[in-house]
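Researcher: Here's the sequence for the chain we discussed earlier.
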Amino acid sequence: MTAAHWLALNGGSIPMPDEVERVESFSRIMKLEPFERGMRELAPTVWITALRKEQNPQRAATLKPVMWDEKFQTLKVNPILDWTPVEMEAYLAEFELPNERTYYDPAKGDEKHECGLHAKLVTDVAKANAPP
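Model: Thanks. This is the structure I predict for it:
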């Protein structure tokens, strides 16, 4: 679904952090379903992430620099897993890269929310809620 299509179906504005149901819907439709479909269709043998332990202490306990991802049956590589915020800031500055904290991502809702890509997607529910 394009951004314009989603906006037309959902009141013409992106969800704000306090609109939990709209944030979850946006995440499911615009991120989760396309990501999972892409992983299924492309079936990569290696998945390189930008995950860092400091971003999510709960998930950090299960992450390793190189690991097998059972869900997608792929080798998952987390090369910056142990980077600190200072190391990340230095890298972004050195290569003049944008900082993800400087833009609003409606799928995150606020700083404490995940982007949603690691949540369990119920494809049948997403399909049932999708427009014809």
